[in-house]
Amino acid sequence: MKIFHLIFSLLCVVSCALCTGSSSDRFEKYQSLSRFGQLDLDDSSYEDIISEPHDYHVAVLLTATESRFGCILCREFQPEWDLIARSWNRGSQKTDSPRLLFGSLDFSNGKGTFQKLIEGKLMLQTAPVLLLYPPTVGPFAKVDPTPLRFDFSGPISADQIYSWINRHLPDGPKPPLVRPINYTRLVSAVTVLMGIVTLFTALSTYILPIVQNRNLWAAASLISILLFTSGHMFNHIRKVPYVIGDGKGGISYFASGFTNQFGMETQVIAAIYAVLSFATIAIAMKVPRMGDAKSQQVAVIVWAAVLLSMYSFLLSVFKAKNSGYPFFLPPF
Amino acid sequence: MAESPFDALLKGESGRNTRGLLRIIILCTVAAAAVSSRLFSVIRFESIIHEFDPWFNFRATKYLVENGFHSFWDWFDDRTWHPLGRVTGGTLYPGLMVTSGVIYHVLRFLTIPVDIRNVCVLLAPAFSGLTSLAMYLLTSEMSTSPSAGLLAAAFMGIVPGYISRSVAGSYDNEAIAIFLLVFTFFLWIKAIKNGSIMWGALTALFYGYMVSAWGGYVFITNLIPLHVFVLLCMGRYSSRMYISYTTWYALGTLASMQIPFVGFLPIRNSDHMSALGVFGLVQLVAFADFVRGFLPGKQFQRLLTSMIIITFGVGLVGLIGLTVSGVIAPWSGRFYSLWDTGYAKVHIPIIASVSEHQPTAWPAFFFDLNFLIWLFPAGVYMCFTRLGDEHVFVVIYSVLASYFAGVMVRLMLTLTPIVCVAAALVLSYILETFLVISPQTFQAKSRDTSSESLRSARSPVVGISSYISKLIMTSSVVIYLLLFVAHCTWVTSNAYSSPSVVLASRLPDGSQYIIDDYREAYYWLRQNTPANAKIMSWWDYGYQIGGMADRPTLVDNNTWNNTHIATVGKAMSSREEVSYPILRQHDVDYVLVVFGGLLGYSGDDLNKFLWMVRISEGIWPDEVIERNFFTARGEYRVDDEATPTMRNSLMYKLSYYNYNTMFQTGQAIDRVRGSRLPVDGPQLSTLEEAFTSENWIIRLYKVKDLDNFGRDHNSAMAFDRGNKRKKATKKRGPRVLRIE
Questions:
Q1: B399 contacts A221? CB cut-off 8 A
Q2: H or E, element range at B423
Q3: Alpha carbon of residue B126 to chain centroid
């Protein structure tokens, strides 16, 4: 009985030593693999890295970067994820930070895992998803081995993810997130700037008349005004679609609703404004300068007709957007 | 034969007098039209303060009138932001309140018995009349013909983009600020044209008034230096510019620093640095101009180059050094979000949550400006033909303001004046060209045909020859103008004249039905609660509770403390067990929620709920998680499929508590979100319903005191329901050794 007890406890110790040993080994192995960034996992290495027991944290990004899956968010986030992993791996060697591995599992490499996760209790439904596995043994072990998950609801920066990970790690020194300085961009910007300055000084006799050309400045300011007043900034900020289908195979050019618009719609509106403004300029500036009475008469009629029809079209578009609007002009 | 009496009136000295008289009459009519078109809300509803911020301004004005100027200046308000309080005197723009206080006292002095509320309600229309006069002056500086000014004044008087913030009752800073903006620009143009210290000082004076009235003064602070800078780049330096700019900058900065809220910002904040930088630049240019007279060309060139390099280097190093060491504050959040459009969304959800800070879709431009929007580019083009100093100003203002208006709906207000100027310039030019009876008059006015001018303006003007052309153009312009007036009236009456405190709807028979739930609930609070009962609500309603119910609030529309707002958000979005300690810690007596489900009123708290969640997530990312309020498929739902977090949140419970009793079993419908609610309504244990208004828009709950027997509220509720015993027997199980 006593011997049995002894053997049992010995076995326990050995197995424990073995398991921690293997866990540490795995950590060393994967850490050496991931010196220059995160690990590209597949089904088997994924299973291996999170196989219990492990005394380190694992942060896995489940993603689908291949273009055929059409996951724009995945592709946008991938470099940010690389950045986090790289700055962690580089910084953690100097400081005594918690043991943490970074990996990403692409759908094309880990269909089996994805399948398991979709059917399992995590109920994975979208990609990308970030899973953070807590250690199962060691001082920071959690009782519940299910990973913490972070769902992406929109574009997100590395800093936000990094602070999320940090919150769920045990206290201790953590390497800061370091964004590498983009030297190529800096150098190229300086080069381009100096090139422009040189070009300007060398060709100033040719360039100065262009810079001082009043017509050019007038055109530039008119174009920017037309862009801004036709809602271009709205497109830029809200990232609205260019056009969408109307569900019957056609294209709907105008978004329904007063506070909504499409990219193409704003271009149409900008063009309408441009025609109207140009007609006004022509009537104000060009027509009174025409010497021939007959052609002047024709010009006035043509421009007035353009003005009327365009304005009436604009009103009809506006009426379509805002159904309660009572005003209209004859042609449309 | 009728011509001879008219001739006497229209020619010579008396002709000038007649025209002057006509001009005055027209301007008075325009001002009258501007005032009267803003009175829809008073006629349709009553003389009442609108919306949210005006209620605070009104309360502050009452305080000013009752306690005098000095105690207003030092006002510490302990009835808002409980328990922190707010140094109100030092954190507001006092211009509006002081203006109406002065008007009130002057009227009293003239023995006109007027109520301060009526002064406040009618201040905005009165100032809009002044704005159209200022507009006449500004536009007259741009054009040689007085008709442009008159047209611009008429446009400004009735254009919806300005009416939107200045109807009777909308007692907000913008009410007087737009007048000050236009008038300051007029004085600036005068100053730079004449180069006189008097006009520069007047500009500074009105700039100081503007600073005291509205945070948008930063627009002037940056636009005037930019104007000067562009003129310098165009090689148009003159002593006129030097005198007017330095006078304005020195006096204006001193004036603006007198406002406690602004304080030392003009020399420390990056928003104001461009003015300081251009001030330095003007000094350098003036010095170079002075030295040029004494030095030979070669030496001067060398001096100039070295000077430019040295100042640029020193300035850059100094700016970086001061910014890093923290002497110069970085850009303020609201201003920064103008340039980096994604900034607010990521870093300051409280700014992103305000609908006024959203970008502008194109229908909003047309809605607010009608046909001026397409006359506007044409008018800017007209400015390029002569391109005097003042026309450069119009061009810069136009481009900048249209950018700002595109980024933020609320800045449509700053775009409107320049649109009126530009549109009036081109339209008056067209009318003057086409309304001349004899074609010969324009022959003499042919312009210089130098290569610098615009291509379309090179050949001489000959005028319009045929009467048909004149008839066509004049009649179409008249039609467009009539359409504009109709549009403005329609927009004003339909969109901008609702007080939003009182809602109006139509019954099936066409009669008007007034929904007065807000005031009903606020007056209930006023009459049924102790004077220092603390009310917790989302910050939108803070000013109204302070103004109408006169009760202390936790947070209000002056969003100076994000953490405090996030605390309220956390209390609203957490379980009762979490919320109750928060409510107790903040001495909350009543909780107010706005619920539109019965009526279909979409601006209610459940629709704003996600912002509460987001703002509190920013402070407590582990306790409040936005994702948990969405279903697995990412939908925001309130029906059977709503997530447990959603259904246990205090806001959900307070909104739907007892709502089932209004309907047959299982028939409860939320008309805003268009969904059928769960059969069993939510249970409340730590709060009790105190009041629900007629249409259920406002719901008030009293926070229960601690239980007399020391139980938690949940078990006390269970005891009252009579199921205490069952639970006690069930819980007794075998003894288990506790692990961990």
A1: yes
A2: helix B412-434
A3: 18
The confidence score (pLDDT) of residue B298 equals 81
Pair A181, A188: CB distance under 8 Å: no
* Whole-angstrom distance, CA of residue A148 vs CA of residue A165: 10
Categorize the per-residue pLDDT at B55 as very low, low, confident or very high, splitting at 50, 70 and 90: very high
Nearest CA in chain A to B383: A218
Residue B357 DSSP symbol: G
The answer, for A210 touching chain B at a CB cutoff of 8 Å, is no
ipTM of the complex: 0.84
Joined together, the tokens standing for residue A201 give 């000084």
Q: Flag whether residue A329 sits within 8 Å of chain B, measured between CB atoms.
A: yes
The kind and range of the H/E element at B188 are helix B173-194
Q: Mean pLDDT for each 10-residue chunk of chain A (332 residues)? A: 55 46 72 74 81 81 79 80 82 73 82 76 72 80 76 73 81 76 85 89 82 88 93 84 78 80 90 94 89 88 93 92 86 78
Q: Which residue of A has its CA nearest to B347?
A: A160
Report how far residue B128's alpha carbon sits from residue B163's, in angstroms, rounded to the nearest whole number: 8
Q: To the nearest whole angstrom, how far is the Cα of A240 from the nearest Cα of chain B? A: 11
Distance CA A166, CA A162 (A): 6
Number of Cα atoms under 13 Å in the Cβ half of residue B111: 0
Q: What is the residue type of B510?
A: G
* φ and ψ at residue B705, rounded to 5 degrees: -75, 170
pTM of whole model > 0.80? yes
Q: Is B506 on the interface with A (CB under 8 A)?
A: no
**Other C-beta atoms within 10 Å of B412: how many?**
26
CA distance B612 to chain A (A): 17
Could you write out the three-class secondary structure of B94-152?
CHHHHHHHHHHHHHHHCCCCCCHHHHHHHHHHHHHHHHHHHHHHHHHHHCCCHHHHHHH
Are B501 and B48 in contact by the 8 Å Cβ rule? The answer is yes
The residue extents of the domains of chain B are: 529-729
Inter-chain touch A229–B442, beta carbons under 8 Å: no
Between the two ends of chain A, the Cα-to-Cα distance in Å is 102
Q: What is the residue-wise DSSP string for A310-329?
A: HHHHHHHHHHHHSTT-----
Cβ A280–B476 below 8 Å, yes or no? no
d(CA A158, CA A76): 11
Beta-sheet pairing, A39-41 with A100-106: parallel
Q: Are B374 and A311 inside 8 Å of each other by CB?
A: yes
Q: Which of A29, A89, A39, A87 is nearest to A61 (CA)?
A: A39
With an 8 Å Cβ cutoff, is A265 touching chain B?
yes
Q: How far apart are the first and last CA of chain B?
A: 112
What is the β-pairing status of strands A244-245 and A100-106?
unpaired
Residue B576 and residue B651 in contact, taking contact as beta carbons nearer than 8 Å: no
What is the distance in angstroms between the Cα of A301 and the nearest Cα belonging to chain B? Answer: 7
Query: Any bridge partners for residue A61, and if so which?
Result: A104, A130
Give the B window 436-475 contacts with A, CB below 8 Å.
442, 452-457, 459-466, 468-469, 472-473
Q: Name the nearest CA neighbour of A260 among A238, A278, A287.
A: A238
Q: Give the containing element (helix H, strand E) for B702.
A: strand B698-703
CA distances from A301 to A206, A304, B30, B466 (A): 41, 5, 32, 11
**B529-729 CATH:** 3.40.50
pLDDT single digits (tens) B261-304: 888 888 887 778 889 889 988 998 898 888 888 877 788 888 87
Tell me the C-alpha to C-alpha distance, in Å, between residue B733 and each of A295, B420, B730.
104, 81, 7
Residue B400 to residue B404: CA distance in whole angstroms? 6
Q: Which domains does chain A have, with CATH numbers?
A: 14-167 (3.40.30.10), 213-321 (no CATH)
In the structure encoding, which two tokens stand for residue B129, read together? 């009349």
